[in-house]
Amino acid sequence: MKPATSKATATDSVDVTPASRCARMRIPARIAGVPGQTAVLHVEHDCTPAPSEADWLRYLDGGLLGQTHGPFALAREHADGSVTLARDAIGERSLYYALLPSARIIYASRLQDIVQSGQVARELNMASVATYLSWSYLPGRETLVHGIYKVLPGEVVRFRLGSITRSHWWTLPGEPEHWRHETSLRRELRDRLESAVRRRLPAGQPVGATLSGGIDSSLVVALAARLHDKPVITYSVSFGADYRNELPFSSRVARHCGVEQRIVELTPRTVVDELDRTIALLGDPIGDPLTVPNAMLSREASREVGVVLNGEGGDPCFGGPKNTPMVLAELFGDMYATDGPRHRAASYLRAHQKCYDDLAAMLEPAAFAAIAVNALEDWVTPYLEDTRWKSFVGRLMSINLLCKGAHHILGKVDALSGPYGVLPRAPLFDREIAELAFAIPPQLKLRGAIEKYLLKEAVRDLLPGEIIDRPKSGMLVPVQGWFRGPLLPQARERLLEGLAPWGLFRRDYLERLLDGRLPGIHTRRGVKIWLLITLEAWLRGVLKP
Amino acid sequence: MKCIRCGTDSNYKERTGKKCPKCKGAFAFEPRDGDAFTDPAFQHAIDTVSAKGQLRWGAEHVYYELARRQRVKSGCATVAFVILAVITLIVVLKAGWLAVVPALVAMLIGRHVWRTKKQKFVKLVQKDFDSMLKTWQKAHGQPKGLIVRAMTRGAAAPPPRALESDIADYSFDRAVICDRARTADLLLANNFHFENNCAVLAIDGYPEAQFETVRAMLKRNPRLRVFALHDATPKGCRLANTLATDKTWFAEQKLTVTDVGLRPGQARAFTGLFQPPVGQPVAAGKGISATDAAWLSAQTLELAVIRPEQVLKRLYKALTREEQDDSGGGDGSSSGGDGTTHDRDSFAHEASDVESDSDGFG
After folding, report:
1. Quick check: B149 and A335 CB within 8 A?
2. What is the ipTM of this complex?
3. Which of B53, B171, B354 sits opposite A449 (nearest CB)?
4. B125, B173: one domain
């Protein structure tokens, strides 16, 4: 597919680039902000139907970006030197910027392009290091590079004469005053699921789909198999016979839906070989062990298909994990006055099960001192107190969508698909589905202890009962086993040697972590090592290549 | 005695006014004045029960840690007795009448050993320990990790927050029901509930503010997994049976309750730390076998005898083992035939690392 380019009024140069199988055009690093500059519009999108450049200008000038359907990032340079940046509602495409001296701005789809331009000092943002270690990704505007920021999902950033103003063209709707009936919601959800999958099917071409065997990816495959008139090819990951895998479930779904299944086996050797290349593709480090498997699935899929559907979005929209631990934390409260008034925020950060409680022990004193007191808790507290959601679980899910959805899941999928020549499409992150999800009472998402209740009921006829009702397990990556055995030497080298020049971490902590000598009941050694080797690879591959 | 603040070793004369000659910090105890323990010994007991400061613990855990040390001394006496007996024998063979002195010493030690071997009840008097703890707190302040309920802290306690409107509408995967509040405290203070998606209650209605709300929430999950954690007391050993058969608990849901508590069959290793029986002879039935009833009629044993780290690790293993063996009748467990299952492994051996082979993401 060729990029669609044409002239538009008030714009001398236009580069409107719909996503393409062969060449996914990114918005390159551009410096702008000088009065008299050539007016130009850059759009990277995967909207259906594809808007023309005239449409984009109309949407932007008329405040009509809500009329788009699909992911986009856009940048418009005006002749008067002002610049407008905007991003899709949920965060399926990325856009970064930094302010430069002499009232100029630099922006790009990829943070790496801004770093490589040499216009911004390669200075580590210490506060973001603590955020990354606690969340495993970077929610919000800040990045790991001092001075480089993200345009938030649904946000419009306007630059003029050296200063920035921000507004939102879309925000997640709050809870309605009155809830609709379950039956009506279930029917509408099913309609929107079908519509979201249908819109993402490539006409006249086979479509790929990642398949873990969980409810989210399975329902997307089932709908695609039913709605698409060309082959649906599924891609599943296996970690080999020595480790637990989900293949019995994914194979059951593939058979049930009558679709082909490709299995990508990921060995520890592959992880080592692909780690640096994979992490260097990420604008922000994401300490999720699924990064390399995601990249390998994209590579495998690119041999056969141009579009790959995924089941991302089910957890943040319909009630996945972390809700019940938070309900328990809320119920029992701070009975022993451990955290004080920030108990709720501390519990939320702790629920990520990363390094929130380890920061004082793991960081060098100077690095730890750079984190403002209570900064981590104070950042998340406004989300936890947002009165637009009257229900506690509704509020938790809004944070999951706005933070994890936008800054972890979609950022990862976006960064790890394009370079391999495939387009990722996430029907469950469809804006209309997200909006409907927040019109569903939280009690129909978390029903008793059953997660994603209404989503499951909406597709019960499409999948075998053992898939719909299987106990929750999550997609597990055997990092603990890897770092006990085959990957331990790599981890030791990367943590003890690779991280040392940054002066961030206490060597005694790293040694105890590697040797399995951290105290406590749940040390989560494998997860923490993965978090740190990701950071090391990112620092080496992106910040100081 | 070493000062636990600055590490300076001093003798009795140097510790004027029970203060360290170097840092002038106060000592809590003075063995020369009749105190049963030194400051370093007391601190060591705290370090042990807190897993070197990683866990929160109750005063009862330090009590048993110190009591365990007193019991250990009888082991030393046994060794001394054997050595002296050998020396006596040699001296008798070599020097005749000279054997009288070591023989007398050996007899005295032998008498002590015999008494301690016979000792099955804990020797440390609770009142003495309470007094020791107060003395310790006066000299060294509140020890780190000691579980103190916020409600007992008076002005320091945060104001209670009203429950969110929807919070009672949900449920959980698991519940651990304890036979006493302080066991629930141990789990809650160490975030066991949060880490394991597991409600924690004590059967008598603790924690008071949340009890009925949480109990009602538990009934919203027809597949709830229930675990009973308790002392080896008549009340404790009946706990699983009560939970499975009492309509205010889970009788109507017909849930199987897994007994992961301390039972008489696991008590032998704790001889010398037993508590007296609760009163009347214990009748068999309602979760108590005839053998257990006989044992419980003669003594009891508190769960606090097991160090917090071991309680938490063993409980975690019991929870995950029960889920792996969904039938509830696999190795290490047996059916009680009354809606209960006994997890025989829970306190049968040392629990080690709780990390599983796979880690979740996200």
Report:
1. yes
2. 0.88
3. B171
4. no
